[in-house]
Amino acid sequence: MKKGLHTYELVRLFLVRVSDNLNSISKIDTQIPDTKTQIIRVEAAVAAIREATAVAPRVGIILGTGLGRLADEIVVDLAIDYADLPHFPVSTVESHSGRLLFGKLQGMPVVAMQGRMHVYEGYSAREVTIPIRVMARLGIESLLVSTACGGMNPHHRRGDLMLVTDHINLQGVNPLVGPNVEEWGPRFPDMSEPYDAGLRDLAEQVALDLGIKLHQGVYVAVVGPNLETKAEYRFLRGIGADVVGMSTVPEVTVARHMDLRVMAIGVITDECFPDALESVTLEHVLAAANEAEPKLTAIMVGVVGRMATRD
């Protein structure tokens, strides 16, 4: 009986806190533009890019925390600041540069986001995913995502990598809420396999060939920006998540809405074990990301290279 009461109270308190956190952002998502305005905003950014370059990228890459050095592997033809693109959100997190890089990686035409946006920055889920819409309109067919996350699976350790196989959205917002733009995708997109099985196979093969440990598991997205309590980590692990983060799910949802193939790899920057939980700082997270960066970069480069040779 006591155990049941504890579980009930845990769930209730967690949902109360989620509700409180979402009060500040729910107003943002009520200001949803009509379909014509949505199209105009995305196409304005696309037009600005087209004035600067005629490159037709086939792969989009999100260089989140832990994959900054991949930019050095790209033969960059052009870099555009987010601030120079109309209606484009701007990164406010200090570890995110805020540029679009156009060039080639392993001979494959790519566009890379050097830094991403988050709902906790004050953006709506729809605004956070404008870059994905823009990259899709530029012609990408696949989206490769990197993400920093906290590890809750006891078999995972700080600095490990995890290939995302599925996700749980606990952010309380969805970028598809509101009028649907039929030109972009269906009203009710299927999410039975958000992370492409073929791309996951490539990542596994590359990791195996390079001798890099690559876990697989489920990512749960929360709003942030604060990290979770011990009770919340127990709850998140209990509902089936292996790692927790504050991004990725909105971008993946929009990518699938626009029929893009998706692969995501998480860098486990801290160990979120309730019975041995330690305080975490941004410096701690960045140090772990830097430690894992060479492995993550090697896998991403390998995946893109094999995609190029298979075409």
Q: The biggest beta sheet, please?
A: 5 strands, mixed, barrel
* The CATH fourth-level homologous superfamily: Nucleoside phosphorylase domain
Q: What's the helical proportion of residues?
A: 40-55%
β-strand amount:
15-25%
Number of strands: 9
CATH hierarchy: architecture: 3-Layer(aba) Sandwich
Category from helices, strands and their pairing = alpha/beta
Mean pLDDT: 89
Shape: globular
Q: Please trace the helix and strand order, writing H or E for each element.
A: HHEHEEEHHEEHEHEHEH
So what's the CATH class?
Answer: Alpha Beta
What number of structural domains do the residues give?
Answer: 1
Stated plainly, the CATH topology is called Rossmann fold
Radius of gyration from the CA trace? 19 Å
Please work out how many helical segments DSSP would assign: 9
- Report, as a whole number of angstroms, the end-to-end distance: 59 Å
Question: Largest beta sheet: what is the strand line-up?
Answer: 5-8-7-6-9
Q: Low-confidence parts, pLDDT < 50 over ≥5 residues?
A: 24-28
Summarize the structure.
With 311 residues, the chain is α/β, with parallel strands linked by helices. It has helices at residues 2-30, 35-52, 70-73, 125-128, 130-138, 197-210, 230-238, 249-257, 282-310; strands at residues 59-63, 75-81, 99-105, 108-114, 142-151, 161-169, 214-221, 243-245, 261-271.
